[in-house]
Amino acid sequence: MTAPVETIWFLNGPNANLYGLDANKTYGSESFPVLQARCEAKAASLGLGLKFVQSNWEGQLVDWIQQARGESKGLIINAAGLTYSSVPILDALLAFPGRIIEVHMSNIWRREPFRHHSYISKAADGVIAGLGGAGYALAIEAMAQLIAQAD
């Protein structure tokens, strides 16, 4: 078996580890571990490795973005609630030399007005929102295409 050509990073922000536990099903019914396994399988089917991580801490997400600088050509991020408030995450993303896709489980433009502005979008090549777990898989497919186009 050959090693993956490229490993992409998929960062998840605060409370993403609670997916599937929300009584309102805002983020779907799929648990975070099931979503992670599905994303890893999707990446593998495309010949990619996937580093799929989650943190409730802004600084940890910034550290991972900085670490990815030397390890990956692509980064997918769902900064969750930090999407609407984190200049440090934006600054780290702006320093990332590869491709960036912003993803959200829910359609942020159909939610509360404060969610309509994303700091992350300024650094992103594209945004996928409102498709639940399917959006995660689409983000991985899109990243594979972006990386292939860059090579």
From TrEMBL:
<feature type="binding site">
    <location>
        <position position="78"/>
    </location>
    <ligand>
        <name>substrate</name>
    </ligand>
</feature>
<protein>
    <recommendedName>
        <fullName>3-dehydroquinate dehydratase</fullName>
        <ecNumber>4.2.1.10</ecNumber>
    </recommendedName>
</protein>
<feature type="binding site">
    <location>
        <begin position="105"/>
        <end position="106"/>
    </location>
    <ligand>
        <name>substrate</name>
    </ligand>
</feature>
<comment type="subunit">
    <text>Homododecamer.</text>
</comment>
<dbReference type="InterPro" id="IPR001874">
    <property type="entry name" value="DHquinase_II"/>
</dbReference>
<keyword id="KW-0057">Aromatic amino acid biosynthesis</keyword>
<comment type="similarity">
    <text>Belongs to the type-II 3-dehydroquinase family.</text>
</comment>
<feature type="active site" description="Proton acceptor">
    <location>
        <position position="27"/>
    </location>
</feature>
<comment type="function">
    <text>Catalyzes a trans-dehydration via an enolate intermediate.</text>
</comment>
<keyword id="KW-0456">Lyase</keyword>
<comment type="pathway">
    <text>Metabolic intermediate biosynthesis; chorismate biosynthesis; chorismate from D-erythrose 4-phosphate and phosphoenolpyruvate: step 3/7.</text>
</comment>
<keyword id="KW-0028">Amino-acid biosynthesis</keyword>
<feature type="binding site">
    <location>
        <position position="115"/>
    </location>
    <ligand>
        <name>substrate</name>
    </ligand>
</feature>
<feature type="active site" description="Proton donor">
    <location>
        <position position="104"/>
    </location>
</feature>
<dbReference type="Pfam" id="PF01220">
    <property type="entry name" value="DHquinase_II"/>
</dbReference>
<feature type="binding site">
    <location>
        <position position="91"/>
    </location>
    <ligand>
        <name>substrate</name>
    </ligand>
</feature>
<dbReference type="InterPro" id="IPR036441">
    <property type="entry name" value="DHquinase_II_sf"/>
</dbReference>
